[in-house]
Amino acid sequence: MEIYNQEQKEAIRFEGKHLLLLAGAGTGKTKTIVGRAAHLIENGTPAEKIQILTFTKRAASEIVERVKAGIPGRNAQALNGSTFHSWCNQLISSFPNLFGAANYTVIDSDDQLSLMKMACGKDKTIYGQIRIKPQEILDLFSFARNTRTNLTETIRKQMFRGKDDVETNEEIEELRPVLELLIKEYQALKMEQKYLDYDDLLLVVGNRLHKDEEARAILSKAYDYILVDEMQDTNPLQWYLLAPFENICKLFCVGDDAQSIYSFRGADFKNVHSFGERVQDSEVKKLNKNYRSTQEILDVSNWLLERSPIIYDKKLTAHRGPGKMPVVVNVSNQFEEANYIAEKILTDFREGGKMFSDFLVLSRSQYYTKPLQAVFLQKKIPYETYGGRKFLEAAHIKDLISILRVVNNPSDQIAWMRYLTFAHGIGEVRASNYLKEIMGVDSVKLDGDFLKSIIPGKEGEKIKTYYNAVQNNKGNVRQAIKELYKEMELDLAFKYAKDWEEKRKGDFPVLELLAEHYSTLGEFITEGILDNSISLGGSPVLEGSKIKTTEHKDHVVISTVHSAKGLEADVCFVLNVSPKTYPSSYSLGSTDEIEEERRVLYVALTRAKNELIITRTTDSLNAHHSNAMNPFSQEEINSAYFLEGLPENLVVQEQPHTTFSKAQDAKKENKIDLDFGFDFS
Ligand SMILES: Nc1ncnc2c1ncn2[C@@H]1O[C@H](COP(=O)(O)OP(=O)(O)OP(=O)(O)O)[C@@H](O)[C@H]1O
């Protein structure tokens, strides 16, 4: 049974049209979304007419499960929660005629890069005029679409740090037409092969709804309410998608401007402030009390935010009152840090009655946590990682999926290339020749025998067998994967001989299990990619190849701060809050970037309920030499450092007395104790 305070109840029972709940960390925004959905269902709104939108699949499922748990019977069963991308993808497949994109394949960032490389390679005289990598062109294109900014201004912002002088303008004017050609070529390749990239998903739906009265009429029968979590992180493209829904249904959005950490995806926290003006018939409400943390944790968080030149007007007070002082641990290196954390967890687990799931470890990047993961493995501390490279993006998984993809969409040239070059002996040049023949044949004639007829020898035989394994089991995705894996196993083991047994083999049974939830190949490929994608912060369960550690229900979570939004834990470790990291020395030239990083740290600090432990390495405090990449002096780095000037009364400082350091001698000298060591009798 959830308990709500008066302000939360007012939001939950809101009778007006659209509402924005703008409130600080831990004030119960997510809880209020749960309450709102339950209230609507209990008062007669069919659950399938409510859509919950969040930034991660994990957050979406959590909200949906909580609503379902509070409503007896089957009334809430049809409640749907998804990410923006996944929702658009569902709309595209539920209304195939309306959006006209049902048989398109969604491609991930690796595939986008392959396609952009093809676009750049098409006419070398064009690409040769600029010195920009294909990935950078993709980033520019995506930034422009997500922020809905024109190409000139995108180039200026992203490549010239916003400079607007004669020289810069001349350079932009040289780059712009070339980039336009390349982006158009990329777009044409995409359409030719029936691909949609992530941004396309939102645009396909958004464009249709903006331009087509009938589309709005159809969707107004499908939705009564849309509930959006983390509204501060919606970028202009997501606003564009949501705008038509103002007239289709009622919007209920929650957000916190101080937790906006997605400006690299085009979000601007200031947008949330204009909600009242942008959305007709809307109201903005606030929540004031923090229910998550004790006051000492909030004091440090408030202090951090008050030091910002941006006024957030958010002083959090703890409903729970006082508790333990936050601790700053000064470690000399990463292994000391890792051992300190592991020892603390093990002691609290063995002697303090805590579970592993009471601990959350937060880091800027997953990469930084590698030594910590090594120590956890060594000390047998179960853990799960959130953020970082995802399961379906691992090379061995992509090899197998490439065959599912070509059976699902025969125009999928990226997948064909991966499939054809997977068989030993076929290089890129030969594969492209086969590809030309494959593209030339009518798709009804395309089958295993055809492939064998154009590809001679053992390779042709193999390619045929793989193709048939999927084709013959098309109606049962799990079976298709099982049969295909049986055929591919030896080749996969050969290709990945170095770490096959330890790291890769175990992923395939999991892939089969995952496939069980999808009824068609297309759904599996698209949804599977979206659900597990790094750039969308998707499901944490099937990450990397460390699937086995997730079998423990009780585990520590190691997360990037970006993937930790909405999470909370009894004890929270925030790693490496050192100079040059918070803020990163690369953002020192830009106030906007520094302030975004301050919010990142703020999100991290406000995850803790009872204990907040901040680590920092003393080696980063050591002398720093400025260089061309990083021209800032030690003074500049120190004065920008977020913990510089942290009042002594807000935290306790600690040096780890670790079992990791060398054994130390006794403090007092003893008298020698030597007897004969035997009995003379
Ligand atoms: N009225 C209440 N009574 C008791 N506990 C509450 C109440 N409201 C919220 N909480 C608790 O406070 C914690 C934070 O709530 P929630 O996660 O909904 O906040 P939030 O505003 O979404 O936080 P953030 O933006 O920091 O992720 C949760 O543990 C929640 O159960």
Query: How much helix is in the residues?
Result: 40-55%
Shape: globular
Distance between the termini: 78 Å
Which ligands accompany this protein?
A: adenosine-5'-triphosphate
Rg from alpha-carbon coordinates? 28 Å
The number of distinct β-strands equals: 17
Number of helices: 29
Walk me through what this model shows.
By secondary structure, the protein is α/β, with parallel strands linked by helices. 47% of the residues lie in helices and 11% in strands. The chain is built from 29 helices and 17 strands. The strands form four sheets. Strands 13-14-12-15-16-11-17 form a seven-stranded parallel sheet, with helices on one face. Helix 13 (236-242) links the parallel strand 6 and strand 7 (250-255). Helix 6 packs across helix 10. The protein is globular and about 90 Å long. The termini are far apart. It binds adenosine-5'-triphosphate. Residues 3-5, 8, 23, 25-31, 256, 259, 291-292, 566, 568, 606 line the site of adenosine-5'-triphosphate (ATP).
Helix and strand layout, with pairings?
Layout: H1 6-12, E1 18-23, H2 29-42, E2 50-54, H3 57-70, E3 80-83, H4 84-94, H5 96-99, E4 105-106, H6 109-122, H7 124-127, H8 134-147, H9 151-159, H10 166-192, E5 195-196, H11 198-211, H12 213-222, E6 225-228, H13 236-242, E7 250-255, H14 270-273, H15 275-278, E8 282-287, E9 289-290, H16 295-306, E10 317-318, E11 327-331, H17 334-351, E12 359-363, H18 370-378, E13 383-386, H19 395-408, H20 413-422, H21 428-440, H22 448-454, H23 457-471, H24 477-495, H25 500-504, H26 507-515, H27 521-532, E14 556-560, E15 569-574, H28 591-605, E16 608-617, H29 634-640, E17 652-654
Parallel strand pairs: 1-7, 1-8, 2-3, 2-6, 4-5, 6-7, 9-10, 11-16, 11-17, 12-14, 12-15, 13-14, 15-16
Helix pairs in contact: 1-2, 2-3, 4-11, 6-8, 6-10, 8-9, 9-10, 11-12, 11-13, 16-28, 17-18, 19-20, 20-21, 22-23, 23-24, 24-26
The structure holds adenosine-5'-triphosphate (ATP).
Residues 3-5, 8, 23, 25-31, 256, 259, 291-292, 566, 568, 606 line the site of adenosine-5'-triphosphate.
